[in-house]
Amino acid sequence: MIGEPSRVFREKETIMILKRVGILSCAKLLAILYGVLGLIFGAIISLLAIIGSIAGFASDEAEGAVVGLLFGIGAVVIFPVFYSIMGFIGGALTAGIYNLAARFTGGIELELETEPVTGGVARTPSPPAG
User: Rounded to an integer, what distance in angstroms lies between the CA atom of residue 98 and that of residue 91?
Assistant: First the structure.
């Protein structure tokens, strides 16, 4: 039937269903990921502001150049903090909404494959044949 998951799987495969996501766990992870993105975006804005400040000092617009320079320096601090806060809130909301939706839909079906451990080290998966 359409929309019904396929139940054909190989010997070492296991079907698992993600029924619930830890809200705090998801929120913390997204706070870190978004904080890193905020740092990257803040660095780009800072670089552009510094370039604009140099142009402002060259054209005798020192007052605007100083404001641009301060904004650029502040972006490296403000963007990561703001993005982290938004990532935390967004992660918590997303996890909560997922948990609610999973009650009605049954969750996300994951197909996992087990790998034998040899000598205490997991074998590196080989690339798909193609």
Answer: 10
β-pair partners for 18: 108
Instruction: Output DSSP code: residue 119.
Output: T
Distance in angstroms (rounded) separating the CA atoms of residues 47 and 45:
5
| Rg (the chain; Cα; Å) | 24
Tell me the two tokens of residue 114: 């087990």
Q: Is the pTM of this model over 0.70?
A: no
Type of residue numbered 122: A
Q: What angle in degrees, to the nearest 10, is found between the helix axes of 23-58 and 62-105?
A: 160
**Distance in angstroms (rounded) separating the CA atoms of residues 78 and 72:** 10
β-sheet bridge partners, residue 16? 110
Q: Which residue has the higher pLDDT, 15 or 57?
A: 15
